[in-house]
Structures are given as structure tokens and as C-alpha cells.
């Protein structure tokens, strides 16, 4: 995951030309480049606008009500910041795709790539933290209540940001401006294959496999716990929301991760090397990468706006900003899965801590 789906600059792909195991001429990618020239700027711009508005609203609401902050709000705030950091890099890649060359210099090439990776990984990590937090609160209610403090939330957030920066360092170090057929390009160009493998496996393991395993494992236990609780109406809403969260994450990120893994296999001679397969795979990576990026637009919805308390805050704030428009909060889908930090007893978890 390097943002290099935007590097639709050359008319031909010579990446495999000097590989002695491959016996075909450079593939003509002109049509694919022309497709990316229109498709990527449009989709990146749309994701930027929607992601900026949604996550920006989450940040504004949580800052306005910072005196009522709990551990969940801290994680939600940092998740929104991560997605904002991610989407703020998209206008640069949209411009890159539109003009087919990098015009912002080597420093910005490295900096934007580093921010792009840091925003991606920190968003994933904060989703994992929120999942584990909900698991502990619901399944091990009384054991963790005293540890869910603001200080713990701040410390945990700092650790996640440092970890994200550390994981993203190769992108910051090895991404650089190089000369291309149509001008300057901003590419991830490590010194050896080990760092290329790192980029692929970090994206697949940290970006899909580990969070998916955590989500499936934790939410499965949560659902089993909910089955034995009262308040059937809210229980069903929560179960549906849990399924929605896991399914959305998988459907948005799995196609892209599978595509880049196939690209890895192709580069090692495990997949067909013909031009048609090469072009189809490259097109698939371009489309699935952009589709995966739209997940950051959904995070505010599945993690924030489904909560009744957050919706009331957001509606109240928007009503103050737009006095001529009368807004009403939606009905309670779930004040039960990602909201309060107060814990009473397992019999009341669905009404106090799940949302």
C-alpha cells in the first residue's frame, strides 16, 4: 500500500523487460494510463471530500464536548485524525494522476508517502484497539472498568501513533522522485527486494489479516455474550451492526490486498506473465485500491454516527452552525456498542457500554 496506484505515467511498462525468465516485449499500457488519468483524480477527489467532511465533523464534535471525554471518545478521535491524515494526501495523488508527473519535489514525495502510510496503519490500529476495548468491556466487564481511564487512553494513543510511524518509516525513506518516460515520478524504490517484500506483507498482514482475525474473534465472543442478555431489540441491532462492521472492512480491503498479493506472485513467476494478465491485474489493483480508500469515509458512520449520544451532539452542533435548518437526531440504532465508558453489570451492558 504505497499510493503508487497513482503512478499512471508511462506508456509502456518495462518492469519485467530485463527479467531473463520472461520472453515477451514491453506491454502497451496506454489505454490503462488514460483510464487512470480520468478515473483516479475523480475518485480520489470524491473520497477526499467525503472523508474530510465526515471525519472532520467527528473531530469537531469530540473537541466541542471534550469535557465529557472517555476512553472510547479518545480512540474515536484518533481514528478520525488517522483518516483525516490519510485523505489529506489524496489531493496530491489526484494531481499526480491528472498531470502524469510529480511536481511537488522530493521532500513532499517522501513526506506525503509517509503521511499516507501513517494514516492508513494508524486507522487500522485504532480500529483494532476499539475492537479489543469493546471485547474486554463486554466479555470481562468488571475486570477492566478501573483501567479504562483517560490517562490510559492518551498513553495508548501515543503508542499507536509511534507504532504507525515506525511501520511507515520504509515508505518515508525509500520513496523518492525519479525520472520517468513522461517526467518526474514519485515511486517507492527500495534498495533491495527485502523492503519490497516488507511493503507487500506489511500491507497484507497489518492491513488485513491481523485486524480481520481480531475483529472476527472478538466480535464472535461479543455476539455469544449478547445472546444470553436481555433487551432483545437492542441485542439484534447490535448484532447487525457488528456484522456490518466486519463485512464492510473485509469487502473494502480484501480485494485490494488479494490483488497486490497476486502481483507479488507474478513478480516471482508464480502467475502468468502475459500482457493481457499483466494489464488486467494492474487495472484490478488501480480499481480495488481506490475502492479500499473509500472505507475511511465509512468509519465515521459505523463508529460514530450510529451512536445516539454522538448523533445528538452532532445535530446540536450543526443546528448552532446552521440556525435556519432544523435537524432532528435519528432513532436509537444503538447507544450500545461504541459509546459509554461507565460499566455496571453484565445484565445492563447492552444499554450502557456496547455502543
Automatic annotation (TrEMBL):
Q: How does it sit in the membrane?
A: Multi-pass membrane protein
What transmembrane ranges does the database entry give? 43-63, 75-96, 116-137, 149-174, 205-226, 238-256
Give the highest taxon in the source lineage.
Eukaryota
Return the GO cellular component terms, semicolon-separated: external side of plasma membrane
User: Record's PROSITE patterns?
Assistant: G_PROTEIN_RECEP_F1_1, G_PROTEIN_RECEP_F1_2
Task: Check the record and name the InterPro entries matching this protein.
Answer: CCR1-9-like, Chemokine_CCR1, Chemokine_rcpt, GPCR_Rhodpsn, GPCR_Rhodpsn_7TM
Molecular functions per Gene Ontology: C-C chemokine binding; C-C chemokine receptor activity
- Where in the numbering of this chain does the G-protein coupled receptors family 1 profile domain appear? 54-303
Which CDD domains does the record cross-reference, listed alphabetically?
7tmA_Chemokine_R
Q: Name one GO biological process term.
A: immune response
Q: What is this protein called?
A: Chemokine (C-C motif) receptor 11.1
Q: What is the lineage of its organism?
A: Eukaryota, Metazoa, Chordata, Craniata, Vertebrata
